[in-house]
Amino acid sequence: MAVFTPSVSEHLKAVENPQLLFEEEGFLSDVLIEQVTIDGASFKHMCFKNVRFRQVTFRNLVWEHVDFYNVAFEHCDLSNVAFPSAVIHKTGFYHCKLLGMALHDATFAHVTFEDSFLQYANVRYADAKDVTFSRCNMQATEFQGSRFKAVTLDSCSLRESQMSGVRLKGMDLRSCDIEGLGVGLEDIYGAKVTTLQAASLAGLLGVIIEEEDKETL
Question: What is the distance between the alpha carbons of residues 191 and 148, in angstroms, rounded to a whole number?
């Protein structure tokens, strides 16, 4: 599956005080927001279209039902911010820190996460269609109950990630680290894994793998 890249223009008007615009407008389009800190803002039903965030730090944010359409996040820090029930469409996250981010009940379509950190993020009960995670650290990320369709996981760490209730059938996990992945047998059924990965998942079958004892001559 081809990796989607947002078609956000490089020639956008720079915004000097984006937080003031958030409070006044509720809708922001065709702008560049870079090298600022956005702190302590809580909004509902914000909408961003054709926006590029570059080297932006987000702190203490709760944006409920936020809508991102054709948006690029580049080298941004969104750790511990909350975008519950977000709609994220044709959007990319590149070299971003998303540690502990709350994205539960979100809807993703044509979204790329690339070279980003998502450890301990909450992505429970999300809808994800045509989404690519490439070279991302998703250790202990929570995906329980999410619905995946045409999702690609390429060279990602899924150590201790929780994916119970996520159907992984048809997904290729061979390039990923899945040690300690929290799944049930029905979740992992039909996924493509390596021989070594299959051995680590054998516990789902109740199988105990031990080397045969050799008799001492």
Answer: 13
